[in-house]
């Protein structure tokens, strides 16, 4: 008798809490089994215990030697910047002017937008990322193109139209009114349609007038279950600029606070130069930080202060920030955030980094109980990692004493080659053996 149940046998890892603050924060089954049916997790545990209770006719996929964990969650990424990743510029502001704005201009063409969205979603899957918070461009067409593709693939995505009504080229500017009107129409078209959700997306304080931030705050109140995403405290030149544009604000973060843009499901990229009062406000309002180390090092923006963030118990997540970021791989993000934390005197265990890239991301987005772990009933978004994927990783992971050592080698030496397969809602999205890579 056939059954629709699919079971995946391998090393199974997932988290129930942040290992930095809780004991027993993770579940590790060296010979484990992940059981999936109808796009959802039925169970995760030891193979020896679960195999006997599989229904007759269930399919068992033998992935022994590999690791099965929840799909990665990238909480800050720009899909239109896929084609300009690794563009040289001496810092954020010249990089935006020289490369970013001309690249984003092309997204007024829906065909171009669709083409890049397809490439981008393929690339996320190749890197094991199953959920992302995505910036589109100022053009509503860029959002339609993105969600058309992401909903066809049934991947859980959050995205939004960039709003900017000053300090940008005229060809990319909206107005406070048109930005709000277009965003509201997009909310009605896409928010909570299947696995898609909408994010109000004022690019950053310097490119919005007070009127635009005020209208965005009104939308955030009118649609409280939408997301908000923006950039904050990324670069010292940017911060000096914000001071001149918003002289009444106590800090850069305070600009957003004044317009009601700090709340649950608000995700702020970078957060490098926050002070203690800002950190307390992030925690008090339920807003979360997206840490983007590959971008921050590439653009010379600065080093995120892990010790201060943990001291305040900020909600943290990891992100690539492509195309300021230099890779789509969340393993590469772990590699760089590890070094950034070291430079600030913090030691980040690999277990914490994998938590941040899975359940930490889900929590920061208010998606715990939906994705990010293998709790029964969760959507079955997962990734299969191959420690044998390169000669060096194979050699290094041939011998290890503890799970931490294996995970650390994957975080420091891994990339897209490490992703053997990616599944979304129980369906195979990417298989390395079936692709060119
Ligand atoms: N600040 C405003 N826009 C951007 C962007 O596109 N990338 C980065 N890294 N920072 C920004
Ligand atoms: Zn960004």
Describe the model.
The chain is an alpha/beta fold. It has two domains: 124 residues, Roll (Urease, subunit C, domain 1); 277 residues, Metal-dependent hydrolases (TIM Barrel, Alpha-Beta Barrel), CATH 3.20.20.140. Helix content is 37%, strand content 24%. Strands 5, 6, 7, 8, 9, 10, 11, 12 and 13 form a nine-stranded parallel β-sheet that branches. Helix 3 packs across helix 4, helix 12 crosses helix 15 and helix 13 packs across helix 15. The longest helix has 17 residues. The protein is globular. The model has no long low-confidence stretch (mean pLDDT 97). The protein binds guanine (GUN) and zinc ion (ZN). Guanine (GUN) binds next to helix 2.
């Amino acid at each position: 008798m056939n059954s629709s149940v699919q079971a995946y046998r391998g090393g199974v890892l997932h988290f129930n809490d942040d290992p930095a603050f809780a004991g027993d924060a993770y579940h590790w089954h060296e010979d484990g089994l992940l059981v999936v049916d109808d796009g959802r997790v039925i169970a995760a545990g030891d193979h020896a215990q679960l195999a006997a209770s599989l229904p007759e006719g269930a399919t068992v996929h033998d992935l022994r030697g590999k690791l099965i964990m929840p799909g990665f969650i990238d909480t800050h990424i720009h899909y239109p910047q896929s084609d300009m990743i690794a563009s040289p510029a001496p810092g954020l502001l010249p990089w935006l002017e020289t490369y970013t704005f001309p690249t984003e201009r092309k997204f007024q063409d829906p065909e171009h937008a669709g083409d890049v969205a397809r490439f981008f979603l393929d690339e996320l899957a190749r890197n094991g990322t199953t959920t992302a918070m995505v910036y589109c461009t100022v053009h509503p067409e860029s959002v339609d193109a993105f969600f058309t593709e992401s909903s066809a693939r049934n991947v859980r995505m959050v995205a939004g139209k960039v709003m900017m009504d000053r300090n940008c080229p005229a060809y990319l500017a909206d107005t406070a009114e048109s930005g709000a009107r277009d965003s509201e129409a997009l909310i009605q078209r896409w928010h909570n349609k299947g696995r898609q959700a909408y994010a109000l997306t004022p690019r950053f304080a310097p490119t919005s007038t007070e009127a635009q931030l005020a209208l965005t705050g009104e939308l955030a109140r009118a649609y409280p279950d939408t997301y908000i995403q923006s950039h904050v405290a990324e670069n010292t030149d940017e911060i000096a600029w914000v001071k001149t544009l918003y002289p009444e604000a106590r800090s850069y973060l305070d600009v957003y606070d004044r317009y009601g843009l700090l709340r649950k499901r608000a995700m702020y990229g970078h957060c490098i130069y926050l002070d203690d009062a800002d950190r307390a406000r992030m925690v008090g309002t339920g807003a979360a930080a997206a840490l983007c180390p590959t971008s921050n090092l590439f653009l010379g923006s600065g080093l995120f202060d892990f010790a201060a963030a943990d001291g305040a118990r900020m909600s943290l997540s990891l992100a690539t920030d492509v195309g300021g970021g230099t890779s789509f791989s969340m393993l590469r993000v772990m590699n760089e955030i590890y070094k950034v934390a070291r430079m600030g005197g913090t030691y980040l265990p690999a277990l914490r980094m994998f938590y941040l890239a899975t359940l930490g991301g889900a929590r920061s987005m208010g998606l715990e109980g939906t994705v990010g772990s293998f709790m029964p009933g969760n959507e079955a978004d997962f990734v299969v990692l191959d420690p044998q994927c390169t000669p060096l990783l194979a050699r290094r992971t041939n011998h290890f004493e503890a799970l931490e050592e294996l995970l650390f080698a994957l975080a420091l030496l891994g990339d897209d080659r490490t992703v053997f397969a990616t599944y979304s809602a129980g369906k195979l999205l990417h298989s390395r053996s079936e692709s060119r890579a």
